[in-house]
Write a structure and sequence with these properties.
mainly alpha; two-stranded antiparallel sheet; 4 helices; 41% helix
Length: 94
């Protein structure tokens, strides 16, 4: 997974707006910027997941850990974590 930058949290805090998270899966197989394989498209299927509700995080660390757990799981596997665990992470979303 790519590094998580807290800029989204900072913008959310400054604008006094909650964050709505979304995740992508399979995008890395769609385009490879690699001269050795000729920038070939390996796959044409991408999954997009937009999580319900919005959430105002109390600090950048809470945002980063939630984003890594929720969005990172979907981005790595193409499906959500079990509902019980997902609800724990997103429990404060409104």
């Amino acid at each position: 997974m790519q590094p998580i930058y807290s800029g989204a949290f900072t913008l959310s805090r400054l604008s006094r707006r909650p964050i709505k998270m979304m995740s992508l899966y399979g995008l890395h197989r769609m385009w490879h910027p690699d001269e050795n394989i000729g920038m070939k498209c390996d796959a044409r299927e991408v999954a997009v997941r937009v999580y319900p509700g919005r959430r105002a995080f109390k600090d950048a660390e809470e945002f980063s850990s939630t984003f890594e757990a929720v969005v990172g799981h979907f981005g790595a596997h193409g499906y959500d974590m079990p509902d019980e665990e997902l609800n724990i992470w997103l429990g404060s979303a409104k």
